[in-house]
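To whoever picks this up:

The nightly regression suite flagged Glycosyltransferase as changed. Nothing in the input moved, so I suspect the structure step. Input below, exactly as stored in the fixture:
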Amino acid sequence: MSGEDTLVVLVNYKTQSEIKQLISGPLDDLPVDVVIVDNFTDSGLRTWAVENGVKYIDSGGNVGYSRGNNQGIEYGIGDYEYFFVLNPDTKIIDEDVFSELTKAIRENPETGIVSPSIIDQHGVRYTLPSKPEKALRKMGVLPELPKDSEHLKQVDHVPGSAMMISKDVIEEIGYLDESFFLYVEDTEYCYRARQAGIGVATHIDTEVLHYSSESGQKFEKDYQIYYRSRNRYLLARERFDIPGSLIYSAVITSLLVRDVVNIVSNSEFDLIKPLILGVFDGITNQSGRTRY
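Regenerated output under the current build:
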């Protein structure tokens, strides 16, 4: 692998088999460089990376998704123009995905974060929840979206499972927020970019396959629901002024009601506790790795 301007950042936490398959498969023949940031000390990836000529960084433990990606970006910030944050449980199905994403950013300088279209293994395309953010734009909490271009659909945020970020964006707004530890850090980063006047978009003509959030399935469900619930409220506090924070909190509380309905309908009552703890810790500004 020899990349001219793009570094792919892969963060491992008990996904070493997926990482090996991803690097040995589609990434091996594409003009990008790869760095593995290892959040799982006993993964055995160090030896494999050395044998296969892949850059390896030991993060020092489970430092979280945000910090892991930041370590990878920090490693390459002096040598690369673009950074592709990629989940291990993905598959590159368009060989020109990297060239198309970087080309789109170059041709649309007002846009600095671009994601390919995400589909799952059943061919279902991932769509963002647009109604809450549309309401937030109408109330002035989020800025209005720029106009779409030929290949780019402007959105409020893109999923961090496959996200191309230009170096210019990182130099302007900084790195991923490590206080989130896991989940919602991609939304926060995109909101931060949008508030700085940087466009965030989905490339409608390229695709990456993401296997139904299997990275999350490596954790227990209580782990997921705790951090998602907590981090939504952290986002409200960190990204908006007091009126905007109150409005955003009201919107995410409606999502909380939806989560409760899903928990009850599926008789997964053991998830009520992590949900309540997540909301409490979010409201009381408990950040980083907590409880789980």
